[in-house]
Amino acid sequence: MKVAVVGSRKLYVNDLGKYLPENVTEIISGGAKGVDTSARDYAILNSIKLTEFLPEYSKYGRSAPLKRNITIIENADLVLAFWDGTSKGTKYVIDQCRKRNIPIKVFKSICQ
Question: How many structural domains compose the chain?
Answer without folding.
Answer: 1
